[in-house]
Specification:
Blueprint lengths: L15 E5 L2 H11 L1 E7 L6 E6 L2 E7 L4 H14 L4 E10 L9 E8 L4 H6 L5 E3 L2 H13 L5 E7 L10 H7 L6 E5 L2 H10 L3 E11 L8 H19 L2
Parallel strand pairs: 1-4, 1-5, 5-10, 6-8, 8-9
Antiparallel strand pairs: 2-3, 3-4, 5-9, 6-7, 6-10
Helix pairs in contact: 2-6, 4-7
């Protein structure tokens, strides 16, 4: 059965899904890493490709920007397409002086000020956890690939933090004991929905800007770092 947001039929989407916000990045990943990729959804330009990676069937799908967009696609993947595991790969802004541009973060927990959980499920929840099991698989993969990740907590915001009129006030509202190291806009919804359906979800992020480091990165450096994050996700999802 297709949905109003996803024209794929059940069986055309793997139980293992890697998601990214940008549909064009999804298209690139599918063409670069999947064998025999098949476009199974392009409703609203939100591409989904299913193919094999190291002889395992997986799907690469876009989720758009923000929790409302990501939440729709993740909810439907878990509820209607029998998906078991999702790894989101994306970019983030660093809130820690210890992070450098292009560092890769493995998200442990996501905090939000949003009422997303209350609106969706009548729960006042503002902290959601990634899958311990899936994160462990990711950490094993990182060692196998001889790469590095920083594990930590992030904040999932409803708006792009660089556009906030008073970022300092926002940062002061975040509970200090969470030790938030970065900001992005989707992972809370993905983790929360996964917990609703008793499924697994994790998130890898590449640092592309920082509130502490005045530095620029070349397109080549950015692409290499995003490729490393993608390889971690692909090799972890098939374990």
């Amino acid at each position: 059965m297709a949905t109003v947001h996803n024209e794929a039929h059940v069986g055309e989407i793997s139980k293992l899904v890697v998601m990214a916000g940008d549909p064009l990045r999804v298209k690139m990943i599918a063409s670069k890493y999947l064998e025999n990729p098949k476009l199974v959804n392009d409703v609203r330009g939100m591409y989904a490709y299913t193919g094999t990676y190291k002889n395992v069937l997986i799907t690469i799908m876009a989720h758009g920007m923000g929790m409302p967009s990501a939440g729709i696609y993740v909810y439907e993947l878990f509820k209607y397409y029998n998906v078991e595991k999702i790894i989101r790969i994306g970019t983030c802004g660093a809130y820690s002086e210890d992070l450098n541009l292009l560092d890769v973060i493995l998200v442990d927990k996501s905090y939000t000020e949003s009422n997303y959980a209350f609106t969706l499920n009548n729960e006042h929840v503002n902290l959601a956890s990634s899958s311990f099991k899936l994160n462990s698989q990711i950490e094993d993969t990182v060692k196998e690939l001889n790469l590095n990740v920083t594990k930590g907590n992030v904040v999932t915001s409803d708006c792009f933090d660089w556009y906030m009129t008073d970022l300092k006030s926002f940062l002061n509202r975040i509970p200090n004991d969470l030790n938030i190291i970065a900001a992005e806009m989707e992972s809370f919804a993905i983790f929360y929905i996964a917990s609703m359906f008793k499924k697994e979800a994790s998130c890898l992020l590449t640092v592309v800007d920082s509130h502490y480091k005045n530095a620029e990165i070349s397109s080549e450096e950015r692409e290499k770092s995003l490729d490393n994050m993608t390889l971690i996700a692909l090799n972890s999802i098939i374990k």
